[in-house]
Amino acid sequence: MTRHPCLKKHSYIHFSINPPCADALKLRKSMQDGLAETFGIIASGTYLDILWIAESGSEIVIRLSVEDAPKLMAAVVTTPASPRFSTIKQTYFLPSLSSKERFT
Predict the structure, then answer these.
(1) DSSP character string of the chain
(2) What pTM was computed for the model?
């Protein structure tokens, strides 16, 4: 029997948002603008899924490919556009974003 290492296809990133915004289209556009400004127009087409937005609009969880995650994290934290994103946690395993540490 051959064992295959766990392939990491997706990266999950939990961001805080300031000022809060619950509009998924505005948040996606802000991320795309940051990618275009930092890495060029081709990078703005990076495929990403918005998995969750807090009701208050203060947090978001997104999923994207492992290769694109470092670019997005660099782009959204360096762009001066509003809303501003701050990385809370990045992982390859979605359930780890709901650790008990966050809720105590």
Answers:
(1) ----PPP--EEEEEEEEES----HHHHHHHHHHHHHHHH-GGGGG--EEEEEE-TTSSEEEEEEETTTHHHHHHHHHH--PSSEEEEEEEESSGGGGG-GGGG-
(2) 0.85
